[in-house]
Automatic annotation (TrEMBL):
Gene3D superfamilies: Ribonuclease Inhibitor. This is Putative atp synthase subunit s mitochondrial. It comes from Panstrongylus megistus. InterPro entries: LRR_dom_sf (IPR032675).
Length: 193
């Protein structure tokens, strides 16, 4: 059984401080690993280690487990992450530098991510040249400041937001984003609760 940080969070209730330390460890960036296998594979490993799914460019299905990664770790060139689904994932800002060098990610979904916060959003600029579609829902640590920084994602053309409890002025944030990114369609999704 592959033990992920998400599994540990659910298995160890009432140990938030302990778990926060584990989140930091599971999200740690290994520059030597990036050098060894390339940015996309290292990023895919990080995402899956924390409960996210990835889809390679040109492939129809999402991968969720290390066993589904290409077997030859030296085979860097043909595998590029195109889509990330981080539903219920335990990713945090500590791991977002993994996105550096991932130049083909066009679509991302962050849903019900406990540790996804403004610091994560600020680092989405690492993939600003490719990111077109973004969904952020039920991520309770996101604030108005985080949403305001989305205006820097110039290629963004589809943004979906919902259940963001720390956002005080969602309408104002959406208006500012639409003014900065007139080509971007912004959708406020209904509550999932």
């Amino acid at each position: 059984m592959l033990i992920t940080s998400n599994y540990l969070r659910r298995s160890l209730p009432g140990t938030r401080t302990f778990y926060a330390a584990l989140v930091s460890i599971f999200n740690r960036v290994s520059n030597s690993r990036i050098e060894a296998v390339g940015p996309d594979r290292a990023c895919a490993e990080w995402l899956m280690r924390n409960g996210a799914f990835i889809r390679w460019q040109g492939q129809p299905n999402f991968l969720s487990h290390y066993d589904n990664l290409p077997l030859d770790e030296n085979d860097k060139a043909p595998y590029y992450i195109e889509e990330v689904d981080a539903t219920d994932a335990s990713i945090s800002h500590h791991g977002f530098p993994h996105f550096s060098g991932c130049n083909y990610i066009t679509k991302m979904k962050f849903h019900n991510c406990w540790y996804f916060d403004d610091r994560c959003i600020f680092q989405l600029n690492l993939i600003a040249n490719s990111l077109c579609q973004l969904e952020i829902t039920n991520c309770g640590e996101v604030t108005d400041a985080g949403l305001a920084s989305l205006k820097d994602l110039r290629r963004l053309n589809d943004l979906r937001l919902g259940d963001l409890k720390q956002v005080k002025n969602l309408t104002g944030c959406v208006t500012a984003i639409q003014q900065a990114l007139p080509e971007c369609s912004v959708y406020i999704l209904p509550s999932t609760k």
